[in-house]
Amino acid sequence: MDSPAVSVKNLTLRYGDTLALNDLSFDVPHGELLGFIGPDGAGKTTLFRVLTTLLVPTHGSAQVDGLDVVKDYRQIRNNIGYMPGRFSLYQDLSVEENLTFFATIFGTTIRENYDLIKDIYSQIEPFKNRKAGQLSGGMKQKLALSCALIHKPGILFLDEPTTGVDAVSRREFWEMLKRLQAGDITILVSTPYMDEAVLCDRVALIQNGRIMKITTPANVIASYPYSLFSVKADDIYGLLKALRDYPGIHRADAFGQTVHLSFNKDEFREAALLDYLKEKGIEPAGIREIKATIEDCFMDLMGKEEG
Amino acid sequence: MRTILYIIQKEFLQVFRNRAMLPIIFILPIVQLIILVNAATFEMKHIRLSVVDLDLSSTSRGLISKFEGSPFYQIKQFSFSYHEAENQMQHGKVDMILNIPRGFEKKLLIENCVKVQFIVNAINGASAGLCNAYATMILMDYNRQIIAENKTISAMVLPQNILTDYSYWYNPKLNYKTYMVPGILVLLVTIIGLLLSGMNIVREKEIGTIEQINVTPINKIQFIAGKLTPFWIIAIFELAFGLSLGKLIFNIPMEGNLWLIFISAAVYLFVILSFGLLISTVTNTQQQAMLVSFFFMVVFILMSGLFTSIESMPQWAQTLDKLNPLMYFIRIMRMVLLKGSGFNDISRHFWALVIYAAGILTLAVWRYRKVA
């Protein structure tokens, strides 16, 4: 196919005085798994709602499968699957009834497209007579994904599918996405979890309605321009506070039990830092240089935007 | 078409799966019909009467026995002190006082004319009017009796020539139940229809399923048709159920053609369900929808002519009432059931409903937008 799966040009959406989407432009080739990473309120859901034809943009255009989201919304709806962030199936209908309902609305049947959802649906099929409202979080996600897939869409939009799901189910979910991608489905997924970014082909960092960077996870890491160090101490909060006052430092962020601090290349002097910390009465447990993870990169990029 | 059928099936499934719903649909109407029809009557029976007879003559006793014999009155107390009787009324123990003055009989014989006093508790204006009317009727009756019995009086007084006689058409025994049942049935169907449809789409908004529906290729006509048909069927069923109960329990007359009732009901329900749909589209939560429906329902019901007659409302209210769908359907029901009216008689009301339905359905469909 010639046209990209999704093509967005100068897309802007305004809610009153707020710019929810600010001049976005990007293309998504067929078969890609693209992740949108960003904090709450960044505009991820709004972008998805425009692409799924639920919202009309203020300026600019967006095409899904070569079709305009405003003009050809009806055709687009036949070819996309959307899983909203909030569980939105009928809680009082059973698993099977929900699936049959969505299959029928799309003019198909479960049997016709069973192959596509078999992987996912087979896991919840033992509970097919249970009401959707009584499923666990992970099972609800699987059911919602099955319902979004039942009409064999070419493009799948998943809005924060793993929010509120346990770590094991999250991993399982991403494995399923990978398999779907192998079945030639383009997937756009949004998530607030930065660790999920490495699982995507490309990631788009979105903040305050703008896409700050859209590239592969490897590129994100490779383009990290600073020297990064990890420091441990008993009093993490005190350490963080002291480090942020340290002259010449770029950033200091808490990462679990450690603090990550970054300096411009070759500006790091270990002895000077240790002296400074001793003066403040902090005994660091050890400083070592580390390689940047994708999270470090995002923290850095987001910090730049705020500054 | 298959899609619509499936949505209908799904709605039915959801309605019947809801445990609170079945009693609402089947038990509530029976209870409501029985309670309202028996309770909401304009007849006054057992008006509590206090008699102050200061004359104690045969004439005064005759008058009292007239009241005793009437089914409307129940003599609670005889007393010789007007103040005592007044006290009783003050405490709400009696509704009316009959005050017969001293020298009642004597004055009647000598002057051919005498006055008695009625004192009526008029906190409830309507019932006070009835008390008075009943009392006047009894008094007139007694008056005639005295004239006939007492020749000395009849010799001097011209007999009354003009007598009013009543005959109540279409409800000869003035049976209020007969009059109330059709109206209450309309009320029932309206409540069920308006609430079910008003709550429904807003509920999908609340739980977020509308979002999932909106990204599907289903169009809004299909969706709305699929949504409203089940409630339409339930409400029609409800009406049939209520009519059967009315026949079985209250033996209401069914003079006219039942088809006419159901065809009118079909149109009427379009109005009500579209109204519910409209409420559903302009509200965001079930609570809002409930309050808005309630507001309209109370206005519609109180102005429907079910409890008070429309003709006695001020002119502006009567004009406003042209917008009240209940008014039309209650009239149709009463006309067809009690009077046996045919289509020509009800056609004005019927077409009003048709126009109403078309208008409000268009408005509701227009207001319901799939693209947010």
What number of structural domains do the residues of chain B give?
2
Percent strand of chain B = 5-15%
Largest interface: A-B, 30 and 24 residues
Read across the widest sheet of chain B, the strand sequence of neighbours is: 2-1-3-4
Task: Report the principal-axis shape of chain A.
Answer: elongated
Label the structural class of chain B: alpha/beta
Class by helix and strand content of chain A? Answer: alpha/beta
Radius of gyration of chain A: 23 Å
Briefly characterize the structure.
The complex is a heterodimer of chains A (307) and B (372). With 307 residues, chain A is an alpha/beta fold.
Account of the protein in words:
- The complex is a heterodimer of chains A (307) and B (372).
- Chain A is α/β, with parallel strands linked by helices and 307 residues long.
- Chain A has helices at residues 44-51, 73-79, 95-105, 114-124, 137-149, 167-182, 217-222, 236-244, 270-279, 294-306; strands spanning 6-15, 18-28, 33-37, 59-64, 67-68, 80-83, 155-159, 186-191, 202-207, 210-215, 226-232, 251-255, 258-264, 287-290.
- In chain A, helix 3 runs parallel beside helix 5 and helix 4 (114-124) packs antiparallel against helix 5 (137-149).
- The relative contact order of chain A is 0.13.
- The mean pLDDT of chain A is 88.
- In chain B, strand 1, helix 3 (58-69) and strand 2 form a beta-alpha-beta unit.
- Chain B has 2 domains: 2-41 and 173-367, no CATH class; 47-149, abc type-2 transporter like fold (3-Layer(aba) Sandwich).
- By secondary structure, chain B is α/β, with parallel strands linked by helices.
- In chain B, 68% of the residues lie in helices and 6% in strands.
- The chains are: A alpha/beta (307), B alpha/beta (372).
- The interface between A and B is medium-sized, with 30 and 24 residues.
